[in-house]
Amino acid sequence: MYSDEDLASAVKAGVLSEASAAAFRQHVDELRQSSVADEEHFRFLTGFNDVFVVIACILLLVSVNWIGATVAFWFGAFLQGASAWGLAEYFARVRRMALPSIVLLLAFVGGVVFGCVMLAKSVGFSQQVSVGLGCAMGGAAAWLHWLRFNVPITVAAGMAVLVFAVVALFSSIFPTAKDWRGLMVFLGGVMVFIIGMRWDASDTRRQTRRSDVAFWLHLVAAPLLVHPVFLLLGAFDQGMGLSTVLVIIVLYASIALLSISIDRRAMMVSALAYVLYAFNTLLQEYGVVSLSFAFAALTIGGALLLMSAFWHTCRAYVVGFYPDRVREYLPPLQSS
């Protein structure tokens, strides 16, 4: 799989001319439009060697963390982060291996966050303040990692830890304002979603790495948006009634409509657990105990498969109602 950056590098090296690269991009674009309509493409595996390298990296990073933790837990975490950065210099920057780059980014940011949390707690900060400071430092670490390696998931990881940093620091300042935490998480999800849409709008045909960045941002925004709303509706309450289930279904339908419009399925997947639980609880209350989850999964799974089969048709119908000014920022409708 050739990325846009690979083509740009070939042009710079004189292997391809600008005209040849442009013609190749146009050919690939036409081929995708004629073969697969309305699909989400993002780089995850470049080959089985990615899996092999990831297993080796995990073994090395766990061992380094374990050995460093004999000195102090925070030292082991920082050692893990430093090792992940060093490995990324080759596997992410030189080899551009997709899955190892993702794992090493998570290991680096996770090591910085956990190390800062443990270090802050060791010097006397409270749990909430330590988590807030650790997540804030994790956001800064993600930004530095992005400047160096440009791994698409980095922006989403940085936004996620920054949202948690704000929530944790707010909770430490106002410990009695527990009801506001859900609202802050939701607002954080809105912010991440808007940023994801800006990345999407910059590459509506999804030909460059910007589309991959948008994919991960939407994947992070989805649970931040969905979880507080479904929690407020009592999606996990045992005494959930029929009215609550109907509201959850309507909300999920709205999420599906938004997902179809922007051609992103992440929000539907994120809300799936809540809908399954709601259906399962409803069936149990009406006497279907032993097979309640099976019937719920059968109904929702069948509906999702049907939607997947007619995704292009649904998009054409839904997007057709939008004005041209809105459609300019959405992925174009592709002929099947």
Describe this structure in words.
- The chain is an all-alpha fold and about 325 residues long.
- It is globular, with a radius of gyration of 23 Å.
- It starts with a helix and ends in a 9-residue tail after the last helix.
- The model has no long low-confidence stretch (mean pLDDT about 85).
- It has 14 helices and no strands.
- It folds into 3 domains: about 1-35; about 45-230; about 235-335, no CATH class.
- Helix 3 packs parallel to helix 5.
| Residue windows where pLDDT falls under 50 for at least 5 positions | none
Outline type: globular
Which bin fits the share of residues in helices?
over 70%
Report the count of strand segments: 0
So what's the oligomer here? single chain
Average pLDDT figure: 86
Structural class: mainly alpha
Q: Rg to the nearest angstrom? A: 23 Å
- The SSE string, one letter per element, is HHHHHHHHHHHHHH
User: How many structural domains can be distinguished in the coordinates?
Assistant: 3
What are the main properties of this structure?
mainly alpha; single chain; 3 domains; globular; 336 residues
Question: What's the layout of helices and strands?
Answer:
Layout: H1 4-12, H2 18-35, H3 48-69, H4 73-91, H5 98-122, H6 127-149, H7 153-173, H8 179-201, H9 209-232, H10 242-262, H11 266-285, H12 292-309, H13 311-319, H14 324-327
Helix pairs in contact: 3-4, 3-5, 4-5, 5-6, 5-7, 6-7, 7-8, 7-9, 8-9, 9-11, 10-11, 11-12
